[in-house]
Specification:
The structure is a homodimer. Chain A is of the alpha+beta class. Chain A is built from 16 helices and 18 strands. In chain A, the strands form four sheets. In chain A, strands 6-12-13-18-17-16-15-14 form an eight-stranded mixed sheet, sandwiched between helices. In chain A, helix 4 packs across helix 9, helix 4 (165-187) packs across helix 10 (385-394) and helix 9 (362-383) packs across helix 11. The longest helix of chain A is centred in the middle third of the chain and has 25 residues, at 261-285. The radius of gyration of chain A is 33 Å and the shape is flat. Chain A starts with 22 loop residues before the first helix and ends in a 20-residue tail after the last helix. Chains A and B meet through helix 1, strand 1, helix 4, strand 6 and strand 7 of A and helix 1, strand 1, helix 4, strand 6 and strand 7 of B. Strand 8 (211-213) of chain A pairs antiparallel with strand 8 (211-213) of chain B, so a sheet runs across the interface.
């Protein structure tokens, strides 16, 4: 479908000419005249086999330099499709070189792929025959010069930072993990369910919620309206009242004077008009600027959803309804916490993957979580090795080894009680948080278990009921619940899940024990009232997984647009 | 990894034993002892080849009846993995039958697959040897009896409605369309980008936004706190002031009396304590119940993000930043409109797919949109035919034909000007909205073009600039912009997109012409200031696509948890 006025392309860039999982980018050439740089330089032959082909490529100049006394220029061109650049050569007869060589310049060019002189690093380069478009850059003003910029500095330029090597590599790894997630669950017969973002049910009574409202804008609109068209004064209403009385009196008089029907009808109609007008004035006189109030409190019945509404903290409770009908489901969407955390591990908006499985117990849950995490790691090794090599070189020497280890090693599985015993016996390290049965494991404990004791991922299961949510299934010991966390080196807890309490009487008791009201959970109890089923599920914090994979330290750098207290750029 | 205490399963349900794209469900047996019903009844042999195998299956009873004078029961069991049921036979020696036969009962059973007697509809049935779990139903209370329920009725039971044939079929079709979306874009080298849900930039100055805030809960917390611990009275502050003065006087006296160093240091330390205490009291005396105000207005600098924040109406502007770095990207996430629309076509929360492509013009955009829509249709024909047959039987006789037509027919492409001419010449229909150059096409016009004139999808391009957004690229005629809409039978506009204005001077002028301030778009202009690139993109309303595919009439029935004015259940 490419336009027919352009020169020969890479012979349809047929998928068969490519390998290494990079044929995807080539398929784009079905729709456009442009070829992605990935489909040239990421072939196993480095593109050598494409020498002689005519192509159009576009990208942004990473580095450019004039050579041969200004007779030609070398440009390192990157289009974000892979970490590698394409070397591009432009002669001064083809285009003025000065504007092309600035870092950040966008160029769209056409030319022939050639084998470069022997002894050079790249396997193919592009000799430009025509410069189709140039998006120039004033190097004095461009915020992202060639010098190395800190990730912290780049957070002030979230709209431009994907042009850097690091943020674009993270974006590709994040993309791969997202697609791997869908692929894994679809492959295993799970249905993707979109749980709601705006919710009126608070998952765990957690509290730190963002509220969603139109009350402020409604109040603003009303205020504007009242300014343009002020509410009636008392004397206006009095006048209108008087008019109604007058019109009524006229009718009485006409009636006692036995006036004819027409006269009375006309008078009645005038009375009706006067009454309507009074009613309108009275209605408007009730309008008050500001937020709607009732009994001294905000009147949420006047809000958009006629009640308080919030941003979801988890899709779990809602997706359980789908699991209790479709058996194997998952949700993958944004979740929110209005916590005033300024740490490198917390965001106000983050993405969660939450599978939920019917006819399954804690063991099935652990099997699924382990297989999923392994699948993600293997996927990156298979599909993102070049980006992972970039991370190893620049951020975390052990990133690839960690993926390989997790993909190939069976996860250790120990009970919470065993975990506490192991940690209590630790002598070579003093923990900041004291270990004893009943505590919630802190990140230092989780990492010690995974990094030092087992040197691999560890699944800890059967936690004390006192530190876990009401919906987790009570074990027969009546002390622990069928919860499980997957702990991994580098980030600690990556996955948290549980078998859900499917017994009506037990969960009702647990809700009350947690000090929660029953009414908001009535719908949730319905799933236990009618055709209840053993089921389980877990949640994986998607940004945690990206941190684990990339070795990046701050969560604000692994999500495209980080939101945290005081900041929500764009 | 299935447990080893259970009886033989379908021999690992190896993927090779299955066909018709249904091997996915079989892979689940790697993690669990349960086999999905889909991997039995959706084989091309209807499951006949599995006769003799021992399996565990779970599901909810669609219909059940006792037979042979109560000696055994037939159950039609569905687990949501496909529209078809598995016929299950339980003898009374195995389990009391009465509680099993109620519609909605959940059963988890183990038994042997058998070939049923000749002449029956199903190719395989399950003879139960053991009932592992039962989740009973009281038929007098169950809200979803066997009788046919209207979709409107079911909207009051969003947590239970996935158990119905219709809502579960829609859920599977929706899942298939979501995965097809990711597959299409990944296949063509697009990177999935998570654009923000909470945003401080309003895409089109559209206005109908939901605000995100913690001001209400902060005010509530403060109010509670002030009740428990009231702010200091004036006299308390006065006393604290006096104390500071006293302590200061003491120091002066000590100094003039040339007291020793220790005495003075002790006095200074007492003064410091008194000053701190005063400062704390003064700080607390400023606390006022209610929302924070400044100059008579809400003080949003005290809100979570230190400014007003909203739910996104589109990820386009933000994803453009990624396209201007990574070339081919897409976003797929929830978007929001606080419109008071009570129609069958509008939701307050809905999902959008928004690809964005650099080095591409309107023609590339149309190529991509057409290929994507065709891909979705073909995917359903290949992967969801059983669910589509259900829709044809129960909702829309033409649903499958429509998919086939769209998947196989080249879309018509006409300019807006041509479209208006065609509509002006229509004589067999009187439109509610007058047609003339310059109007925005109404749904009736869009459907007439697609359903009556061309009888296939139509792409209308080059719309008058007056009716389109500022970011659409101005054409050389200076009257139209490079916008395009894909119109399809049944729903009208399915896709809307445009080439974006990449010229700095032009877009700056267009923003001002639209009466918008420049400052909030400064970051957006940066993409034109530095290395600008021709780029384009489009948006597909995901629920519209589900409506188009299923033939369902009301958008509230094609999203799991519909949100609209006055309603946000769960």
């Amino acid at each position: 479908m490419a336009s027919d006025t352009t020169p020969p392309l890479i012979d349809q860039m047929a998928a068969t000419t490519l390998d290494d999982g990079h044929n995807a980018s080539a398929l784009w050439a079905q729709f456009s005249d442009r070829v992605m740089i990935r489909s040239i330089v990421c072939r196993s032959d480095g593109g050598a086999g494409l020498a002689g082909q005519n192509v159009r490529v576009g990208g942004w100049v990473k580095t450019g330099r004039e050579q041969g006394k200004g007779s030609f220029a070398f440009l390192e061109l990157n289009d974000g499709s892979c970490p590698a650049n394409l070397q591009v050569i432009v002669e001064k007869e083809v285009s003025p070189l000065e504007q092309l060589v600035q870092t950040g310049t966008c160029v769209y060019v056409q030319g022939q792929l050639k084998e470069p002189p022997a002894g050079t690093k790249q396997k193919v380069e592009l000799r430009v025959e025509k410069v189709i478009d140039v998006g120039p850059v004033d190097p004095a003003k461009y915020p992202l010069p060639k010098t190395r910029l800190t990730l912290e500095f780049l957070r002030d330029f979230v709209h431009l930072r994907p042009r850097t090597n690091t943020i674009s590599a993270v974006a590709r790894i994040r993309n791969a993990l997202a697609y791997a997630t869908h692929t894994f669950f679809q492959k295993h017969g799970f249905l993707y369910v979109h749980t709601p973002i705006i919710t009126t049910s608070d998952c765990e009574g957690a509290g730190e919620l963002f509220q969603v409202t139109t009350l402020f804008s409604d109040a603003e609109k009303l205020e504007k309206e009242l300014k343009q068209n002020p509410p009636p004064s008392e004397s206006e209403i009095e006048a209108a009242n008087l008019l109604v009385k007058e019109k009524g009196d006229i009718i009485s008089k006409l009636k006692s004077a036995k006036a004819n029907k027409e006269e009375i009808t006309a008078a009645v109609s005038e009375l009706t008009i006067a009454k309507d007008s009074l009613a309108r004035l009275e209605e408007r006189s009730k309008l008050k600027p500001g937020l709607p109030q009732k009994d001294g409190k905000i009147d949420y019945s006047r809000d958009f959803f006629a009640r308080q509404a919030f941003l979801t903290v988890s899709g779990q409770l809602q997706v359980e309804g789908f699991a209790c009908a479709l058996s194997n489901v998952y949700t993958f969407g944004p979740t929110f916490r209005a916590e005033h955390s300024h740490t490198s591990r917390h965001l106000a908006e983050f993405w969660m993957v939450e599978p939920e499985i019917a006819f399954a117990d804690l063991k099935d849950n652990m099997n699924c979580a382990e297989a999923y995490v392994k699948f993600l790691c293997q996927w990156l090794l298979d599909n993102c090795l070049d980006d992972m090599e970039f991370m190893v070189k620049n951020f975390d020497k052990t990133a690839i080894d960690r993926l390989k280890m997790v993909a190939s090693t069976p996860f250790e599985r120990i009970s919470y009680t065993e975990a506490v015993q192991l940690l209590e016996n630790v002598t070579d390290k003093k923990f900041d948080n004291k270990v004893e049965w009943g505590i919630d494991l802190a990140s230092e404990h989780e990492r010690y278990l995974s990094e030092i004791i087992f040197k691999k991922p560890v699944i800890v299961y059967n936690y004390p009921k006192g530190i876990k949510a009401f919906y987790m299934r009570l074990n027969e010991d009546m002390k622990t619940v069928a919860a499980m966390d997957v702990l991994v080196p580098k980030v600690g807890e990556l996955v948290g899940g549980s078998q859900r309490e499917e017994r009506y009487e037990v969960i009702e008791k647990r809700i009350l024990e947690a000090g929660l009201p029953l009414e908001p959970y009535d719908w949730y109890l319905d799933m236990r009232r009618y055709g209840t089923v053993k089921h389980c599920g877990f949640g994986l914090g998607f940004e945690r997984m990206v941190l684990f994979a990339t070795g990046i330290d701050n969560i604000r750098d692994v999500i495209p647009f980080p939101r945290y207290p005081g900041r929500a750029d764009l």
